[in-house]
Amino acid sequence: MLSGRGAGVSTLLSVEHLDLFYGDAQALSEVSLDVPEGAITAIVGANGAGKSSLIRTIAGIERPRAGRIVWRGREIQGRASHEICDLGIGQVAEGRQIFPSLSVLENLEVGGHLPRARRFKSDGLAQVFALFPRLAERRSQAAGTLSGGEQQMLAIGRCLMGRPELIMFDEPSLGLSPALVGEMFRIIERLNRKDGLTIVLVEQNVAASLELAERAYVLETGRVVMSGSGAELLNDDRVRAAYLGL
Questions:
Q1: Residues 65 and 181 in one domain
Q2: Do 187 and 232 sit in the same domain of this protein?
Q3: What local confidence, expressed as pLDDT, does residue 246 receive?
Q4: What distance in Å separates the CA atoms of residue 28 and residue 49, rounded to the nearest whole number?
Q5: CB of 78 within 8 A of CB of 61?
Q6: DSSP state at residue 142
């Protein structure tokens, strides 16, 4: 059973028996999971477990060899990434992937070019600048000159400009100072709790992820080996020994 708001909530996104290969090397094997609408779902595991491959496949960057990805009852596997974005599935990629030579404002405007978002661009900018006042202060500054934390804010802001219903975060705390890591998790929690966005969180900070998550999955060598509520996995002896050093 899901903890908290997860109980009784409809499934927004389902992954069913997903296989992904890079050449002859299998990255994902029979991966199945459900993402409840309005919840935070954590996907945890060691480096090389297949977490980023799963996110990239859902986003349409990689094409699975087998399995289904179902969004609001519609199969979307194999669609182009821009089509998936326009359905309402946003991604904050590992490494931020901002456009360093463009200004903060220009980066945000790129995020607002999706057909679903174009007529809301002004409202989107106002919302992003309200959430991240530092971006408003630096709107004319080249994105590549921002600090690591500011670049992560920009990556999130650019995603929000596309008016997503679900955001997939891939290692959002990577390379940030401890103080900024805490701030990043507070932002993710606020986007979910206050703004109602569904979140998929891929993060090596297992304890923080499971504390936030209503639902969680453990990936090992491309397979789902455990699932449950965040609290259940946080208190599971196997998870604590393997990922928390306890």
A1: yes
A2: yes
A3: 60
A4: 9
A5: no
A6: B
